[in-house]
Specification:
Number of helices: 9
Strand content: 5-15%
Radius of gyration: 21 Å
Number of domains: 1
CATH architecture: 3-Layer(aba) Sandwich
Strand order of the largest sheet: 3-2-1-4-5-6-7-8
CATH class: Alpha Beta
Length: 295
């Protein structure tokens, strides 16, 4: 049976554990050559060793994805080791949870840097490489796979910084999809819910997401998320771009995003009293948003 990612060269950030590790192992088993990026060198090397033991191909990289210059090294290493690059999976992330009233500037900056800027840096260098090849006449079949969150799609109590970054990633994906298709590049985002170091840092979540002891389906396993990443990495997904795939256990759905309601059109400028009288009708026409997590 043919492997779905045969010969594809893929960078996966934050691949030393959790979702990134699961992605790296599955993609390698499906024939991809994987650059395992993680700031924790021992974790990255352990994943590479496990992949190699199973007959896969992988190398470790510890470049800082929040540094534009260092991020170039990840792309350069992929090209030097494997001769090409086909996909960037932006997965790395951290938490700095606080209620908004208690959030510090450092809490905000760190999350925006790791999540939102981190999604920009490597992708920027990869796109410049792919665009250059496209302009030379090469046929490009490249992928950007971003990682958003339900917190970014609907908000999450105690995670204003994380929610803002993940919402930004969803919007970034839409722009990338619209701008980059001319070069043969697709951009999609996954919205996973799984058991990772981030999600189980809270005792209540750790208990809820723990692996079942009876051998039944492990609903919260990070391995449940990786098949959609493998499919989007493959050449077969070239017709799919600009989508947000929500994946949890065995459930797969698409987030439809913001949509405009039927407008109230006065044909002239509204005054404040008129707005007070009519805005309720406009709100009634709209479909209520999903509830903010934690409410």
């Amino acid at each position: 049976m043919a492997k779905h990612c045969e010969g594809r060269v893929v960078i996966i950030t934050g691949a030393g554990g959790g979702l990134g590790e699961a992605h790296a192992k599955l993609l390698a088993s499906e024939g991809a050559k994987v650059i395992v990026n993680d700031v924790n060198e021992s974790a990255a090397l352990k994943v590479v060793e496990q992949i190699s033991t199973e007959g896969g191909k992988a190398i470790a990289n510890t470049s800082d994805i929040t540094s534009y210059d260092e991020s170039f090294n990840v792309v350069e290493q992929a090209l030097q080791a494997f001769g090409d690059l086909h996909c960037v999976v932006n997965n790395a992330g951290i938490n700095r949870d606080r209620m908004f009233a208690s959030m510090t500037e450092d809490d905000w900056d760190m999350i925006i840097s790791v999540h939102l800027k981190g999604h920009f840096c490597i992708s920027s260098h990869a796109v410049r490489y792919w665009r250059g090849k496209s302009k030379e006449g090469a046929e490009i079949n490249a992928r950007i796979i971003n990682t958003s969150s339900g917190a970014g799609l609907q908000g999450s109590i105690g995670q204003s910084n994380y929610a803002a970054a993940k919402a930004g990633i969803a919007a970034l994906t839409l722009n990338q999809a619209a701008e980059l298709s001319r070069y043969g590049i697709t951009a999609n985002t996954i919205v996973p819910a799984a058991r990772t170091g981030m999600t189980t840092a809270v005792a209540e979540m750790a208990e809820r997401m723990k692996k079942p002891e009876d051998g039944s389906f492990d609903y919260w396993s990070p391995e449940n998320v990786s098949p959609i990443v493998a499919y989007l990495t493959s050449v077969d997904s070239k017709h799919i771009t600009g989508k947000a795939f929500e994946i949890e256990g065995g459930r797969l759905s698409i987030c439809d995003g913001w949509r405009s309601t039927e407008p109230l059109d006065k044909g002239d400028r509204w005054d404040i009293d008129e707005l007070a009288l009519n805005i309720g009708e406009l709100i009634d026409r709209s479909e209520p948003a999903q509830k903010v997590w934690g409410t």
